[in-house]
Amino acid sequence: MSHPLAHEIPGDDVEQPLAVEQPLVGGRLTAGVVRVGDTVRRPASPASGFVARLLAHLAGKGFDGCPRHLGSDQLGRDMLSFVPGHVPPRWQRFTDDQVCRAARLLRRLHDATRDLAPTLGGEVICHHDPGPNNTVFRGGQPIAFIDFDFAAPGDPLEDVGYLAWAWCVSSRPDRGPVTEQARQVRALADAYGLGPTGRDRLPAAIGERLRRNEAFWRDVQDDAAASVPRARSAELVAWTRHELAYIETNQQIFIAALGSPGPP
Ligand SMILES: Nc1ncnc2c1ncn2[C@@H]1O[C@H](COP(=O)(O)OP(=O)(O)OP(=O)(O)O)[C@@H](O)[C@H]1O
Ligand SMILES: [Mg+2]
Q1: Taking the chain, what is the end-to-end CA distance rounded to the nearest angstrom?
Q2: Staple partner for 192: which of 13, 86, 103, 131, CB 3.0–4.6 Å?
Q3: Rounded mean pLDDT, 157-167
Q4: Which of 135, 147, 148, 162 to mutate to test ligand 1, by most ligand atoms within 8 A of the CB atom?
Q5: Same domain, 111 and 214
Q6: How many other C-beta atoms can be found within 10 angstroms of the C-beta atom of residue 106?
């Protein structure tokens, strides 16, 4: 039986049965993401060209932690491979194992771009949005990142900072004590393989990513054409400010956890 919200589009070949489109919900920014068989169709955006190039580069490197770019469909949408698994709709508390696997996945992604990035002006290509909501889990473990719309050349710390925030840090009481969060950030840094300089810079990098997030949602809020309702973007601005204050208040705890000697 088809999905209750599904509708049909003509297939490429009139002899073929009509392809069924299944809406994929969970994203905030891109309206109209659908699944068709083993593929995902996303409306083309200004990022489409770079994302296609990046995903082709990653495929050439044998990196399997992302979708494949399959071209455009007859409606001009980007066609990507559907990565089977579960994408968590909300940020939540994760185990050390899940966090460390996400960190190693990010490291592999970065390493696979080290030859491409310098020609474009960065050390690596950053995903720039590697939250759990853009991660496919299989068997309870993160196995792939999706949604490369914000990917661009950058400093690895931009992504490691975002990863630490999105996967480990939150002011919500159900996310555990801050000392425990800081310990998990340390585990994440170890799993990524961050050196001493990166470790020293990580607490500031987390704060910097939150400031950028706040500016991003503020821009969305001010954009009359944005697909996100204004009340929702205002909420996200306020939430990011609140989380930034939490991180700044607890800065010394994160610095201490990252600076302490690792296990023998
Ligand atoms: N290649 C893929 N494989 C599997 N599922 C996918 C894929 N691409 C998208 N999805 C699903 O579709 C949902 C929305 O896609 P996507 O994350 O690209 O939208 P978005 O609105 O740009 O997200 P964001 O809010 O992170 O900007 C995802 O949460 C995921 O469940
Ligand atoms: Mg997304």
Answers
A1: 56
A2: 103
A3: 98
A4: 147
A5: yes
A6: 27
Is the pLDDT at 2 greater than 60, yes or no? Answer: no
The per-residue pLDDT for range 5-57, each reduced to its tens digit, is 444 554 454 455 557 999 998 888 889 999 999 999 999 999 999 999 999 99
The three-class DSSP label of residue 111 is helix
Neighbours of ion ligand 2 (CB under 5 A): 27, 134, 147
Instruction: Verify that 210 and 122 share a domain, yes or no.
Output: yes
Q: Is 243 helix (H, G, I), strand (E, B) or coil?
A: helix
- pLDDT score of 3 more than 50: no
CATH of residue 143's domain is 3.90.1200.10
Look up tokens 């697909």; give the residue.
Answer: 227
Residue with CA at minimum distance from ligand 1 atom 29 = 26
**What is the extent of the structural domain holding 224?**
96-259
Q: Dmax over Cα atoms in the chain, in whole Å?
A: 65
**Which tokens is 116 given?**
């491409």
Residue 137 φ then ψ, to 5°: -105, 140
Contact status, residue 127 vs residue 109, Cβ threshold 8 Å: yes
| Residue 262 confidence (pLDDT) | 53
Percent of the chain with pLDDT over 90: 86
